[in-house]
Amino acid sequence: MARIVLGLGSSHSPLLVLGRTQWGVRAADDQRSTTLNTLEGRTLSYAELVAERGTPHADRCTPEQFHELGTRAEAALDRLAAALRAARPDIVLVVGDDQGELFDADNLPAISIFCGDELVMRPHAELDAIPPWANQEFWAGYRMDLPHRYPGAPALAEQLIEGLVERGVDIASARRVPDKARRGFGHAFGFVIQRLIGDLRIPMLPVLLNTYFPPNTPTAARCFEIGGKLAEAIAAAPSQARVAIVASGGLSHFLCEEAFDREVIAALRARDATAIGRIPQTALRSGSSEIRNWIVAAGALGGQALEELEYLPVYRTPAGTGIGLAFARWS
């Protein structure tokens, strides 16, 4: 049987790729935004956000605060990378979201497992929208500067697909990247390769969730249930692989909803299926939708304790736009 030897969770925000002195660039993006999602499912412009909430975070979006938070985030990522290296997994299973990099509106499964021999990163030049501040160095932080190739884990992937189907999860599968010049894997997976796996060349087993694009985004309850069934499928697989599970993304953004994030973290730590099931779909939209990746991973890691967590609420603007950066280790 395969065995889970480690669980990790990591945000993959552009803030973690940009230098700390450049965090203000993202603040300027926030202030131009007209699509800031509230937990209740409303969409606001920045001006409307200021009118509704005021500017209570003016003292938390300074260059000094950004430097301190960036330093703590980098230290947390270093600890996760060290934990991965120490665990010596044979395969890294990454639960991440696809944001139109591999799939598109013509074919958008709610959940899919990639069972090909080789992952190919999507080159950033083929993305539909590229921020003006995102240069080649930035995309290299996500391994999307070129169509880089990395080993997959096809044997275990197929075993997990079969195991999930047997357990009532009708899961999609993908075996190859059909047009390597135009499609490929995105930042949710490239960040894990770049920042956590590094030069280890450990095969990756991607689990891709549709978190961003309604109507077929899975509920929080279903994500937790699928995570538990994923753990069962891993335990039943004939493979002898040692597996590390990594949740990529989150937490709340592009509004930093600190109280909500802390409630989610408490539910994940307690493995409280009831509390997790109460998280509404309206709260899991836009960037905050990536919390689903953590919920799947936490469901799969139900037998392991959440031993370390670094949560950093980042307020990029006085009105409270930003992100809840989170880094965790289960073992």
List the SSEs and their pairings:
Blueprint: E1 3-10, H1 23-32, E2 36-37, E3 43-44, H2 46-53, H3 63-87, E4 91-97, E5 111-114, E6 118-120, H4 136-140, E7 149-151, H5 154-166, E8 172-174, H6 187-197, E9 204-209, H7 220-236, E10 242-248, H8 258-270, H9 273-277, H10 291-300, E11 306-315, E12 322-330
Parallel strand pairs: 1-10, 4-9, 4-10, 5-8
Antiparallel strand pairs: 1-12, 2-3, 5-9, 6-7, 11-12
Helix pairs in contact: 5-7, 7-10
Our measurement of the CA-to-CA distance between the termini, rounded to an integer number of angstroms, reads: 18 Å
Number of domains: 1
Shape: globular
| Structural class based on helices, strands and sheet pairing | alpha/beta
Task: Output the helix-strand order.
Answer: EHEEHHEEEHEHEHEHEHHHEE
* Quaternary organisation of the protein chains: single chain
Q: What characterizes the major β-sheet?
A: 8 strands, mixed
- The CATH class name reads Alpha Beta
Content of β-strand? 15-25%
Low-confidence stretches: none
CATH topology descriptor: Protocatechuate 4,5-dioxygenase, Chain B
CATH architecture: 3-Layer(aba) Sandwich
- Overall pLDDT: 95
CATH level 4 superfamily: LigB-like
Strand order of the largest sheet: 8-5-9-4-10-1-12-11
The total count of helices amounts to: 10
Q: Could you tell me the radius of gyration in angstroms?
A: 19 Å
Number of strands: 12
